[in-house]
Amino acid sequence: MADTNLLYFTELVSMPVYDLKGRRIGRIKDAAVVPLVHPARIDRFLMGGTEAFLVIRYDQVASINLNRGIDLNDEQLVPYHDDEYMLRIARDLFDQQIIDVNGRKVVRVNDITMEVRKDQGRDTLSVLEVDIGVRSIFRRLLQGVVPPRLIRRLQHRIPPNSIRWDLANVVEPDPLRRLRLNISYSRLEEMHPADLADIVEELGPAERGAIFETIDSEVAADALTEIDPKMQASILESLEPEKAADIVEEMSPDEAADLLNELEDETSEEILDEMDAAPKGEVRELLEFEEDSAGGLMNTEYVSLHENASVMDALAALRGNEDLLESLNTLFLVDAEEKLCGVIPLARLFIASGGAKLKDLSAETLIQVTVDEHQDRVTELFDKYNLLTLPVVDEDGKLAGVITADDIISVLRAK
Amino acid sequence: MRKFLSRFRYHVAVFFAVVGPGFITAVVDNDSGGILTYSQAGAQFGYLPLWTLLPITVLLIIAQEMCSRMGAVTGKGLSDLIREEYGLRITFVMMALLVIVNLTNVMSEFAGVASSLELFHISRYISVPLAAVAVWFLVVKGNYQSVEKIFLFACVLYVTYVISGFLVQPDWKEAAIYSVKPVLLLQPAYLYMLIGMVGTTIAPWMQFYLQAAVVEKGVTAKEYAESRIEVIVGCVMTSVIAFFIIVACAGAIYRVQPREIHDAAEAALGLKPFGQYAFLLFSAGLFNASIFAACILPLSTAYTVCEGLGFESGVNKKISEAPIFYFLYTLLIVVGAGVVLLPKFPLVRMILWSQVLNGMLLPFILIFMILLINKKELMGEWSNPKWFNFVSWVAAVVIIGLTLAYVGMTIRGMQ
After folding, report:
1. Would you say B325 and B148 are in contact if contact means Cβ atoms under 8 Å apart?
2. Per-residue pLDDT averaged across B207-214, rounded?
3. Distance from CA of B262 to the nearest CA of A (A)
4. Tens digit of pLDDT for each residue in A9-22?
5. Residues of B in contact with A237 (CB under 8 A)
6. What does the domain layout of chain B look like in residue ranges?
7. Whole-structure pTM value
8. Inter-residue contact A108 to A132 (CB < 8 Å)
9. Across the strands, what pairs with A14?
10. Distance between CA A257 and CA A251 in Å, rounded?
């Protein structure tokens, strides 16, 4: 069999342990990885048989064999006292939820597959995979009832379902223990925010808070906007106001305002207090508008230029607003009094010469709404004129913000 | 004053945001089996059993409150918690039992659909397959938010029982007296009926469903006060409906000639002399209750089992993403509806057996619930206070005692 050097954790548990003279001195009850020392090696075995557990260090083990058990090469064992740096497999991992980084989902641990490796003449165990799915459930149910050899033979009919150990992210709400177990969520930061949001939604509130506490604020902001609004609020409330403010600052002002609107007044004040002056001002302004008005929908991230500016000026302005480029598709022209007087689809810049006046490029009809226009009317306009963006002006005709098609999609989906 | 008003508005808003799980669970409790039990009680003993509704309501509230509290605080379903705290094997056994129990429950719901529509002269060979297909599509093709709205609407339809209760013009004075005056007849049939009322009211699946629904709804510990009100109102409403069912049957059947009835359709026919409307409303109510429970039971079962065993679940997932979830869901509907169409299938016996299994499963679930809710590391400040622990143990012992007595009597009756 190809898997002779594999050992399942369900097989390790209750394996007999023999001392140097070959006498049986106890059975394995649990085993632990010490992530700060080695990420995958089983570093400590906990043996029962006496009143308290005894701890076997990995280098005290001579051989590990499925049929015989574990033979020691050193029988100086110390009693177990709770070790904060141990990730105990049976206690901390079995039946708990972990994150499958590659499959981008939350899964429950049924069993662990380990590999027996020769290391300086000793057998050591190294965690290979976290087992999920039916095959490992089968193993768990029959563990201790049916001999391991027979279980191995029977399970071949069931397809395996496992996650590589290095792609499994343990979730730990306690920050101190997270440090001691060397758990980081940096790999989650590389995921698409929508995937991260799905994962977070599946976890409990404590775990959710833990993830948002630790990951980069920008990633947290992106993921947070993808989450169900009600849950967004409860996540933000569970965080320290400073961290919450960091995340809110990274959001676009309109999304930040929507989110703060969901919170109780006191909490949102606390968060606003912690924010930097510039984003705070914008968010505060947006908070003034009714949620279902154009003012409540709009955001203040746009690029506007004076009506006499040239294409060269426009390009310079775009270079100065690089962080907006990803979602930008329109430029706005304003007159000396900041009144909106034209819109230019971004693509027009490409075919215009550098010296051309922006005024001459602007679309013929100027479609705009005032801040207090109802959202139903706004969606109507988007539909009627096939808009991607719609400028919003205040009572004096001054440009106040812009509504984009994705805001409208959110409105329609919420219905 | 303004601050007070804004607080009040906030709480009302929160209340409507958390409404759903508590109402639905409590009301579905009056499924076809429940309606039969209450009809029997009224038809055979008139107004005498009414007093039991008060203690039943209290027991129901105690059980439901614990589940919704655990859901709100931990953000995890009951099967998740049992799995995490007590391991895979216990969870597996419970889930296996739950599937069997709920399968027989689904059968009795489809039998209720069949017999209620036969009152309107619709053959069961048409009604049951159509109902099964409708149930399957409703959940698979919808999303939970919209399905929940349909469920809430179905709750409203229970008002038919209230109206039909009025239409038979029962003796309100007697009904009022016996609602608060305990009467204990030392007849086996009377005792059996009293215990049966408790047995059908507090079922294992409800605890799982309620907690999962609270989690799905995203209720947080902070909103829990509102959620608790919802649970209590839901339980009271359920008993009010039960009251009117008993009163209707007491007024229509017991007053004419006390007798045993064997299915809820027979009770509906008994109302016929009191006008076409009383009969129609009672039958329509039975149909509504049956199809409503037939929607929820398979869904809740598939969800609970997959959560507990760590399979992908949820109606928002595609069939290829959550194959076991959809397999279980479909199986429960197909088998549950299928057997109703088999002419020789011993349905009544199956339903009795399901009540026996219900009774055997319930003690474990209640005990696990109380143990879990006392875990400080799970519930923190939300764990049971001492006095409530006392109350819940007493309630659990009472429920378990009565349920076991019911099981014993049912088994004796079957021989």
Report:
1. no
2. 90
3. 42
4. 999 998 999 999 98
5. 220, 222
6. 24-414
7. 0.80
8. yes
9. none
10. 9
Phi/psi of residue B177, nearest 5 degrees: -60, -50
Q: How many CB atoms lie within 10 A of CB B218?
A: 21
* CATH architecture group of domain A304-414: Roll (3.10)
Asked if the domains at A184-288 and A304-414 fall in one CATH topology, the answer is no
User: Tokens 């622990």 label which residue?
Assistant: B389
Rg (CA), chain A: 30
| A188 interfacial to chain B (CB closer than 8 Å) | no
How far apart are alpha carbons A172 and A181 in whole angstroms? 9
**Among partner residues A105, A109, A228, which is closest to B218 by beta-carbon distance?**
A228
Specify the CATH class of B24-414 in words.
mainly alpha
Is the predicted pLDDT of residue B276 greater than 70, yes or no? yes
Residue showing tokens 């768990």? A140
d(CA A131, CA A137): 9
State how far the Cα of B50 lies from the Cα of B398, in Å rounded to an integer: 19
A230, A274 Cβ separation under 8 angstroms: no
pLDDT in tens, A246-268: 888 888 888 888 888 778 778 88
Query: Using one digit for the tens of pLDDT, what is the confidence trace for B135-152?
Result: 898 877 777 777 788 888
Angle of helix B276-309 relative to helix B32-45, nearest 10 degrees, comes to: 140
Numbered residues of chain B with Cβ closer than 8 Å to any chain A Cβ: 6, 10, 17, 74-76, 83-84, 87-89, 92, 218, 220-222, 309-310, 312
Helix, strand, coil shares of chain A, percent, nearest 5, are: 40, 25, 30
Gap between the Cα atoms of A46 and B98, Å rounded: 36
For domain A184-288, which architecture applies?
A: Alpha Horseshoe (1.25)
User: Which of the residues B19, B84, B88, B324 would you substitute to probe the A interface, choosing the one with the greatest number of A C-beta atoms within 10 Å?
Assistant: B88
Pairing of strands A78-79, A87-88: unpaired
Positions of chain A with pLDDT lower than 70, given as ranges? 1-3, 415
Q: How far off is chain A from B85, nearest CA to CA, in Å?
A: 8
CA distance A380 to A294: 12
SS (H, E, C) chain B: CHHHHHHHHHHHHHHHHHCCHHHHHHHHCCCHHHHHHHHHHHHHHCCHHHHHHHHHHHHHHHHHHHHHHHHHHHCCCHHHHHHHHHCHHHHHHHHHHHHHHHHHHHHHHHHHHHHHHHCCCCCHHHHHHHHHHHHHHHHHHCCHHHHHHHHHHHHHCCHHHHHHHHHCCCCHHHHHHHHHCCCCCCCHHHHHHHHHHHHHHCCHHHHHHHHHHHHHHCCCHHHHHHHHHHHHHHHHHHHHHHHHHHHHHHHHHHCCCCCCCCCHHHHHHHCHHHCHHHHHHHHHHHHHHHHHHHHHHHHHHHHHHHHHHCCCCCCCCCCCCCHHHHHHHHHHHHHHHHHHHCCCCCHHHHHHHHHHHHHHHHHHHHHHHHHHHCCHHHHHHHCCCHHHHHHHHHHHHHHHHHHHHHHHHHHHHHC
Instruction: Give me the residue spans of the domains in chain A.
Output: 2-165, 184-288, 304-414
Q: Determine whether the interchain pair A141/B6 forms a contact, defined as Cβ–Cβ distance below 8 Å.
A: no
Cβ of A94 within 8 Å of Cβ of B87? The answer is yes
